[in-house]
Amino acid sequence: MILVTVGMQLGFDRLIAAMDTLAPQLGTPVIAQTGAGNLQPVNMEAHPSLQPDEFQDLMERCKLVVSHAGIGTVLNAQRIGRPIILMPRRANLGEHRSDHQMATCAQLENRSGIFVAWEVGQLGEKITQAMAYVGAVPAHSTSADDLRASVARFIETGCL
Amino acid sequence: MLRETFGRYDTRFATTDMAIGAQHAAGSVSTLPDCNKDRPFDALMCLIKAASLVLRLRPHVVISTGAAPGFFCILWGRIAGAKTLWIDSIANAEKLSLSGKLAKHTAHQCLTQWEHLADGRKVAFRGAVL
């Protein structure tokens, strides 16, 4: 199963419409969390919002996540070892107040297990790339180890 | 992500979302009302609730990733004599959050999770959760 999520707060119909079009060709069910969008998908099981435990259950059950560039979802997918495809919301299309998701995608693009579809036209090829990554062991983050060590040092000494 | 680091200490969590609190840290969670700069009344209520929480718990250390409710906890923690650490959310890849910009003048230490946002003075980079 592929899980599509756009967060609980805003709609992102551009991503939902593109995934609804692609869904019949993907060879696996697609479940979408559609947020406050107006589009009713016909090829995907759709839920406007989900409780955290329901959402987590879908995250665990899916092979692959397709998402807006929400950092919480990226962290969640990385923690449980699911490849994730990000498509950034754009301010000029009214999808968010700013283009910060573009910046997030630019920063995350080359990390292990994270794929970026800058436009809807790239979603198909990114799904193929990400599918090849399913089940791969996620690279251990030494950066997270460094951050933990710094926080532990701060708690004990007040220095970073 | 930092659970192992906190595991050795008596840790209390404050969140604006009880559902998330229940999922991650059952038993030691308090809720604060959400607020932002566009809703001054909510912000005032949150400021008061944060004061009541921090002054009741009297923590030795206050750590927050934001946003406004977390900043209020840092502020009251600093006033109450706690060591205070701001870790700006990794969501802020372009610039420090608004609450982070306030927190860098308020907290004892301020971390960003993006190396290019460290300024060599008040804002440091020591790694990221990803």
Helix proportion of chain A: 25-40%
How far the N terminus sits from the C terminus of chain B, by CA atoms, comes to 9 Å
Overall pLDDT score of chain A: 94
If helices are DSSP runs of H or I spanning 4 or more residues, what is the number of helices of chain B? 5
Principal-axes geometry of chain B comes out as: globular
Question: What are the SSEs and their pairings?
Answer:
The complex is a heterodimer of chains A (160) and B (130).
Chain A (H helix, E strand, L loop, with lengths): L1 E4 L7 H10 L7 E4 L11 E3 L4 H10 L2 E5 L2 H9 L4 E4 L12 H9 L5 E3 L6 H9 L10 H16 L3
Parallel strand pairs in A: 1-2, 1-4, 2-3, 4-5, 5-6
Chain B lengths: L2 H4 L6 E3 L2 H7 L4 E3 L8 H18 L3 E4 L3 H12 L3 E5 L10 H9 L2 E4 L10 E3 L5
Parallel strand pairs in B: 1-2, 3-4, 4-5, 5-6
Helix pairs in contact in B: 3-4, 4-5
Task: Put the structure in a nutshell.
The complex is a heterodimer of chains A (160) and B (130). Chain A has helices at residues 13-22, 52-61, 71-79, 100-108, 123-131, 142-157, and strands spanning 2-5, 30-33, 45-47, 64-68, 84-87, 114-116.
Account of the protein in words:
The complex is a heterodimer of chains A (160) and B (130). Chain A has helices at residues 13-22, 52-61, 71-79, 100-108, 123-131, 142-157; strands at 2-5, 30-33, 45-47, 64-68, 84-87, 114-116. In chain A, strands 3-2-1-4-5-6 form a six-stranded parallel sheet, with helices on both faces. Chain A has a single domain (2-157), classed as Glycogen Phosphorylase B (Rossmann fold, 3-Layer(aba) Sandwich), CATH 3.40.50.2000. In chain A, strand 5, helix 4 and strand 6 form a beta-alpha-beta unit. Chain A has six helices and six strands. The mean pLDDT of chain A is 94. Chain A starts with a strand and ends with a helix. Chain A has 160 residues and is α/β, with parallel strands linked by helices. By secondary structure, chain B is an alpha/beta fold. Chain B has a single domain, classed as Rossmann fold (3-Layer(aba) Sandwich). Chain B has five helices and six strands, in the order αβαβαβαβαββ. Chain B has helices spanning 3-6, 18-24, 40-57, 68-79, 98-106, and strands at residues 13-15, 29-31, 61-64, 83-87, 109-112, 123-125. Chain B has a four-stranded parallel sheet, covered by helices on one side. Chain B has a two-stranded parallel ribbon with strand order 1-2. In chain B, helix 2 links the parallel strand 1 (13-15) and strand 2. In chain B, helix 3 crosses helix 4 and helix 4 (68-79) runs parallel beside helix 5. Chain B starts with a helix and ends in a 5-residue tail after the last strand. Chains A and B meet through helix 2, helix 3, helix 4 and helix 6 of A and helix 2 and strand 4 of B.
